Amino acid sequence: MIRKANLHDLPRILEIYAYARQFMRNAGNPTQWREGTPAESTLRRDMAAGQLYVQEDDGVHAVFALILGADPTYAKIDGAWRSDALYATLHRVASDGTRHGVLNQAVEFAKTQCGHLRIDTHKDNQIMQRAIAKNGFRYCGVILTDDGTPRLAYEWL
Q1: Residue 85's domain spans which residues?
Q2: pTM: predicted TM-score of the whole model, two decimal places
Q3: Number of domains comprising the chain
Q4: Residue 144 to residues 74, 77, 114, 141: CA-CA distances in angstroms?
Q5: CA Rg, the chain, in Å?
Q6: pLDDT tens-digit series, residues 33-45
């Protein structure tokens, strides 16, 4: 089941992100999320805006943000978007490692909210790159995050 996250979920969500950071480091992606990323303040803002979701099945095991509308970091791309129509962005996808297909479930949910999706990931995040491609996204180019680091950007129509 996917539902909107609430403040009661916050301790578990922070545990999930801690696990995900360690998993990425162990999988050869040591720099995508530094310690404390995403910031608790970001998660609280996402919750207040109604755009942070959890996946639960005998407890919360995954989390993601689904943000409808233009993402400022996607305004410039070294490459080309396939469409400039209204889109939703999947951000901060993470799991506790106990379930498979977490991104697939998030994408299927996102498709019910918007028919145009975007997502990005770090060049070292090979696992996420494969999952993104498996979910039908097409590579569009490189964007820069708000801290200036590059990300591989993808789109689904």
Answers
A1: 2-156
A2: 0.94
A3: 1
A4: 8, 8, 24, 10
A5: 15
A6: 878 789 999 999 9
**Before 11, cis peptide (omega within 30)?**
no
Instruction: Decide if 137 contacts 117 (C-beta within 8 A).
Output: yes
Residue 84: both structure tokens together = 């400039």
CATH number at residue 17: 3.40.630.30
Token pair, residue 111, equals: 């498709």
* Nearest partner of 136 among 112, 155, 114, 110, judged by Cα: 155
User: Is the CB of residue 122 less than 8 Å from the CB of residue 32?
Assistant: yes
Round to whole Å and give the CA distance between 12 and 95: 11
Give every CB contact of residue 76 below 8 A, 6+ residues apart in sequence: 143, 144
Integer angstrom CA distances of residue 87 from 37, 81, 123: 24, 11, 23
Q: Which residues contact 114 (CB under 8 A, 6 or more apart)?
A: 68, 86, 87, 88
Residue 54 contacts residue 60 (beta carbons within 8 Å):
yes
Which pair of tokens denotes residue 153? Answer: 């950007």
* Strand blocks (E) in 82-149: 88-95, 117-121, 138-144
pLDDT in tens, 90-117: 999 999 999 999 999 999 999 999 999 9
Residue type, 152: L
